[in-house]
Amino acid sequence: MTxxxxxxxxxxxxPPPGKAYPDxxxxxxxxxTDAAFPERAISAAFISFAGLTTMSIxxxxxxxxxxxxxxxxxxxxxxxxxVFKKEKLFEGxxxxxxxxxxxxxxxxxxxxxxxxxxxxxxxxxxVEAQNKLNYQYSRKLQRQRAELDAxxxxxxxxxxxxxxxxxxxxxxxxxxxxxxxxxLQLALRADDQEILGVLAKCIQALSNLxxxxxxxxxxxxxxxxxxxxxxxxxxxxxxxxxxxxxxxRKTERISQxxxxxxxxxxxxxxxxxxxxxxxxxxxxxxxxxxxxxxx
Length: 295
Hints:
mainly alpha, disordered N terminus, transmembrane, transmembrane helix, membrane, 0% strand, single chain
């Protein structure tokens, strides 16, 4: 036996008087804690078992209580170690979860910031496009208003010139009819001298009518109005036939009274038709331009 075994055996087998195995507890503690030296632990356990055979019941109870306390203490230590390990693992998981949550929050905040930036950018683009459209519409409206104002000025000027030309044409027509009616009345009275003077006025009135028709045709822009004015040249042919008929009757000395009265009636009807026709031409108005039609 080694020195330690002899010492332990002596302590167990030769207890001092009045005290049962005082060295049992250190041996048991040595057995529990000296796991790094298995030979010593086995020797101590053997010595302790050998000593138990000589222990009394009271000593066995005390040993059992001590062993149970040691087992409970070891269980508590193991449980504490497991709980501590679990708590440490849980703390690591909690820190990892907090870190992940923080990263997610940062990513979400960055995503929201990017979306807000994109939204502000799109909003700015929409506002700029709207401002551009408003500017273009304002420019277009100003241009159309300027065109309309220019058309109004041109319309007023054209209407004034047109009305003056048509008024002169109407005056020329009325003068021509008056001269021819006066000539027919003189022809009924057989006043040749005055007829010649009135005939010269009629020829001059025909010339004035021709110039008035051409002037009016050069002003109007509507083809329909120009065609209507061109048809007034028919009056010239009518009056030329009247002049030729009067001349022929004077030359051949044919009775003129019935023919002159018939001619006077035709002249009145022709005057009414011509004046009505001329009035329809004067009631025509220039059309407004189609502003912005090209766009």
